[in-house]
Amino acid sequence: MSGTPASPVVDIRGLATVFGKGGDAFTVHDDLQLTVDRGEILSLVGGSGTGKTVLLRHILGLTRPTRGSVTVLGRPAGELGREGASSRVGMLFQHGALFSAFSVIDNIAFALNELGTLPPALVQDAAMVKLRLVGLKPEHATRMPADLSGGMVKRVALARALIMDPPLLLLDEPTAGLDPNSSDEFCDLLRELHAALDLTVIMVTHDLDTLFALSTRVAVLADRRVITSGTPQQVAQFDHPFVDHFFRGERGRRAMAQPPAVPASKEA
Amino acid sequence: MGAQVLWNHWGRAWPAQVDLSAAQREMLERVARFSTPCEPAPPWRLADQVDRLGVLVLHALDHLAHLVELVGQLLLDVLRLVRNPLRAPWRDISGHLYRMGAMALPITALVGFLIGVVLAYLMSLQLRQFGAEAFIVNILGISLIRELGPMLGAILVAGRSGSAITAQIGVMRVTEELDAMRVMGIPHGFRLVMPRALALALAMPLVALWTTLAALAGGMLAADLTMGISSAYFLQALPAAVKVSNLWLAMAKSVVFGVFIALIGCHWGLRVKPNTQSLGEGTTASVVSAITMVIIVDALFAVAFKNLGF
Predict the structure, then answer these.
(1) pTM of this prediction?
(2) CA atoms within 13 A on the CB side of B303
(3) Nearest to A60 among B177, B183, B191 (CB)
(4) Are the CB atoms for A93 and B180 separated by under 8 Å?
């Protein structure tokens, strides 16, 4: 299913997205190219309205691009939404998107339960393992999503995304809305999971600390396409008003001053 | 603000002579610099109105097409359920059945009972003029069993459950739960639409029957009080006045009502955009169109089966 090891996990070619019709037409992407190789942690950055989330939704197959192709794990992205999709790609939504009618453990086990091929007791055990894996305690299992803190919601959502061990994980603003402490913890967790589970990760983020702590590669969206990509340090040297503002503003310089947390061998 | 009033009074230009302090002049200059004439509203044009009407018609056709799609999808999902009944969302179905059916019993009984009383009382006044009091059984029997019971039940359920369905699914859109389901490869039709449609298809005839019984009880009581027609006579005369086929017609109608209320609720819920205003609009539209649909379907049944049951 994941194709030969050499082929990219995500391959986007000639992608164009246009919202609206006729005179109101509004182009978000135009002739956008992007490939993500196995084992990468790619951060998508860009100003608001540059279509980062739209791009994630294209990769998930939730929306179709106006032109161009999106290939995920060797198959068109539109085919992702079939049965057992959780075994191919996991998604962490910005606000968690936990099913509010289910308890934490049922949320995590939902995709496995839906398959209906495994005995319920086994599914329960597997869900409990994932719950512990993301750093939650067994007594959290029976809580409802409404009773969880923001950081816990993200952890449960991550456990749910990982329940069927997908090779590809998409994160939409993984640390937005978390306090600095939980944000750092969440970054550590993501780094551990990436190393342990051989994941390919694509994330949208505005948080420079997260970006420098995690990414092996950064792709900058501006002017309706990917203007540059490379390691955070390389991208920060690129000459473009957005990059200037984003990386070389005060916050950017502060974040860059910290030593890169990624092992050298992982860098592209 | 005072400077703006003054400036507008001067016709947005400096007068030939003016005596101002430095602070006043500064303020007036600021107003003068930032005053921008409002853009005139576009003139009313007939063509725009025609365009708007066209857009409305296209939207209506779009909704209709989506509704047909939902009906088709429901048939496919039911087929899937029949093929593999063990993997169906039975817990969901029973939960909806309880919330939409059992919880609706008190309110439908109350409304049905009161309508029965009112109807019997009004009829008794008219019938007494002709000395035909005994016919109250026929009038109440036919009208309540065949038309009013199912209609009242359906309208109440449309208001209660139609809005609840739209709100539930709409909130799932707002919180991205719908997207999360799609990402997990779980079809909305099988997990969200079908359980609600099946639950209402099952609950609606029972609620209709319940409403009819409550209305008949109310009518019986009023007939006894106003005209002295005893309950025993009422019950004895009822089977002769109303053929059983009327009851079957009412039940069949109710199944269709239930399916349509659920589908319309789901349709508007799935169409909600991720903002609160759209959620409110969707809920309103859901209730209004569900009640309208109930009345249209009732009219169609009345025409199609006009020879049945008399």
Answers:
(1) 0.81
(2) 5
(3) B183
(4) yes
